Amino acid sequence: MQKTLVLGVIGADVHAVGNQILNYAFTDAGFRVVNLGVMVSQEEFIEAAIESAADAIIVSSLYGHGELDCQGLREKCDEAGLNGILLYVGGNIVVGKQPFEEVKQRFLAMGFDRVFGPGTPPEAGIAALREDLAGR
Amino acid sequence: MRAILLIDFGSTFTKLTAVDLDTPRVLGGAQAFTTAGSDISIGLAKALERLDQSTGPLEFDARLACSSAAGGLNMVASGLVPGLTSKAARMAAFGAGAKVIKTYAYKLTEDDILEINRVQPDILLLCGGIDGGNSEVILHNAARVAGAAGDFPVLVAGNRNAQEECAALLADSGHPVYTAPNVMPEMNTLNIEPAAEVIRQIFLKRIILAKGLNRAERLLDGIMMPTPAAVLKAMRLLSQGTKKTAGLGDLIGVDLGGATTDIYSISRGEPSNPAAILRGLPEPLAKRTVEGDLGMRYNARGILDAVGAEALAGMSGLTEEEILRYVVRCAEDPSLLPGNERETRADLALAAAAVATALARHAGTLERVYTPMGPMYEQRGKDLTQVKQVLVTGGALVYSALLETIMGLALSRQDTMTLTPREARLMVDRHYILSAMGLLSDWEPEAALNLMKDIFGREEAYAAV
């Protein structure tokens, strides 16, 4: 069965190009993509995931404020009944140049299932989704 | 001459407008008290008699009617997420000319069903989930509604993958089931027209009968739609025009009544601020909202609750105590007319506050967000700041000598982040022809448009704020 993803750029971030590329790549890979575009709030991700019965929420961030924007998303998903929904985050998600392994650990601790650093090709995300959604 | 009779069965008055389609011109109008309590055709016959006296005997090619008699069309809307399918369901019901007495989100509870049992809507609209999305909640709600008392029809317009199962759950419930395409087939995509059309069909088939309005049918060719749906049609035609004749462009309609305040907007409402980004559910070009808590008499209390006694006192020059006393009297005696200058000013403040609040709720809002690229704005709903024409209808405003003052106050008493019109030219529906023109617009749109442009284009119909 076709899997549904909610896709968007979180917070006050207006970087639209990467969002369009991901939309194209995930759709081309056979996923049903509910693309919310840029400047998406946590609440919008959650509401879209409820209405669309989504299997995963894919959060992008490029402007460095991702860490602030993403805090509490997992807790809100739990509160909204989206128990165990896959949460991915990727992009330039923290301020400045920090070791990616540390960044990854911080986002995993926030409740994200996968964390992707700058320059990750869409294929990596697609492969991870196929693996994580295989048993669901 | 091709004469056509247009009838509006209102809650108080049955209003007739006779139109000659050939010229086209209004031949005359007449009204009489609506007799929905006994036999609605009595009031109609009386009004016809009066029309006959003023125009002389006429042979009508057709008789078309709309109705808001016997309480109008009352609906309950149910969806999944409040800002998404619940809101879409609500907009569909408003667009069909209904008053939405209650909107639910998420799973209906046993208490919700008890409440629905109490209010007994004319139609319940069941939505939830985009196509292929969540079906659990709408199925739960269909099963719950199947257990609700009464025989009100249920219109299912949710996730297409759950439609059949919902209909099956409701099949033996005593509630007739209708279906329409999903009001929100994809995320943030509205599709409310098909559901609104089915609501109109149900209204024609069942509600007219249930309210005893069919007794008038031997006198006419049928009641075509609820009155607000006719007004919305007329406004849309006047704004958009036809293929042959241009319309007036973006406009807003205001209908202030004793019990509710209706606002109509015909405008895309796209951001006029270049730093604004549109967020949330897009809204229909022709949008109608009804504020069930704002009315000059039955809901004067609601106006007070919305703006506070201090604001009403400030606008009227009365004391807060005087305002409170007046509001109580309005509720006790809905037929109350202002008896002196102070009461006239109390009504002025109530009217201005009701229109200001209803406009603010109808229009979109801006919110400032700070980004690394500088301050930006998020716009939700329609930007109506650039709309320069407001069409006023409904007795409470049309016959007010203070109309310009009321509308001036209503337009100026707005927050800068609320996207209501800033200044406008007022057009006044003095002869109460809007609903008649909405009925005519299905029949002969060209004639209806030319008549409206003619009547609202006259100098006497204007007032600037």
What attributes does this structure have?
heterodimer, A: 136 residues, alpha/beta, Rossmann fold, 5-stranded parallel beta sheet, 18% strand, B: 465 residues, Nucleotidyltransferase, domain 5, 3 domains, 6-stranded mixed beta sheet, 5-stranded mixed beta sheet, 15 helices
Largest sheet of chain A: 5 strands, parallel
Shape of chain A: globular
Q: Characterize the quaternary organization of these chains.
A: heterodimer
**Total separate domains of chain B:** 3
Overall helicity of chain B: 25-40%
Structural class of chain A: alpha/beta
CATH architecture of chain A: 3-Layer(aba) Sandwich
Please give the radius of gyration of chain B in angstroms. Answer: 22 Å
Describe the structure concisely.
Chain A is of the alpha/beta class and 136 residues long. Chain A contains 6 helices and 5 strands.
Overview of this protein structure:
The complex is a heterodimer of chains A (136) and B (465). Chain A has 136 residues and is an alpha/beta fold. Chain A is built from 6 helices and 5 strands, in the order βαβαβααβαβα. Chain A has one domain (4-133): 3-Layer(aba) Sandwich (Rossmann fold), CATH 3.40.50.280. In chain A, strands 2-1-3-4-5 form a 5-stranded parallel beta sheet, sandwiched between helices. Chain A is globular and about 40 Å long. In chain B, strand 15 and strand 16 (374-380) form a beta hairpin. In chain B, helix 11 packs across helix 13 (403-412). Chain B folds into 3 domains: 3-69 and 214-221, 2-Layer Sandwich (Nucleotidyltransferase, domain 5); 74-206, Response regulator (Rossmann fold, 3-Layer(aba) Sandwich), CATH 3.40.50.2300; 237-464, no CATH class. Chain B is an alpha/beta fold and 465 residues long. The A-B interface holds A 2, 4, 12-14, 32, 34, 36, 38-39, 44, 47-48, 50-54, 63-65 and B 80-81, 83-85, 128-130, 132-136, 184, 186-188, 277, 279-280, 369-373, 376, 378.
